[in-house]
Specification:
It contains four helices and no strands. Helix 1 crosses helix 3. By secondary structure, the chain is mainly α.
Length: 124
């Protein structure tokens, strides 16, 4: 149990900055309708950060080409670590909580609420 908690803690702390970055730029991208179509069009800091999120490059005037491969590998590792960290968090919740029904309710609501909001948002 202690090993699971430590693994969850270290994975969470290691990937927290990158996850916050992805959540922030994804949030901005979700609310912004005029997404830049090419890296050369990224003029502001925010649009450059969004380019990191969407194109896996940081547009810079000094670069004449970009390769997103290394960053994509890091994003895949981050994604696997996030999945593992979330799974460990669920395992820990079931092991620590005495009222397991609340854990189940939270998990079910975490599935139902997003599905319901998508369904309610569909125009008929």
């Amino acid at each position: 149990m202690r090993l699971l908690r430590q693994l969850h803690l270290y994975l969470g702390c290691f990937f927290a900055p990158m996850l916050l970055f992805y959540v922030g730029t994804g949030w901005y991208q979700t609310l912004q309708m005029d997404r830049r179509k090419s890296p050369g069009e990224a003029e502001t800091l925010v649009s450059r950060l969004v380019a990191v999120h969407t194109d896996q490059i940081y547009p810079a005037s000094y670069a004449n080409s970009w390769s997103p491969q290394l960053f994509r590998i890091l994003v895949v590792i981050m994604s696997v670590a996030l999945i593992l960290s979330v799974a460990l968090g669920i395992v820990l919740a079931f092991r620590v909580m005495k009222k397991k029904g609340l854990v189940w309710l939270s998990l079910i609501m975490g599935l139902v609420v997003p599905a319901l909001t998508l369904w309610l948002g569909a125009k008929r």
